[in-house]
Amino acid sequence: MDGISALRCTGEFSQLTNAERRHFAEELTGIVGGHVPLLLGVGSSGTREAVHLARHAENVGANGVLVVSPFYWNVAEEALYKHFKTVAESVEISALVYNFPLLTGIDLFLTLVARLAEDCSNLVSIKDTVAE
Question: pTM higher than 0.70, yes or no?
Answer without folding.
Answer: yes
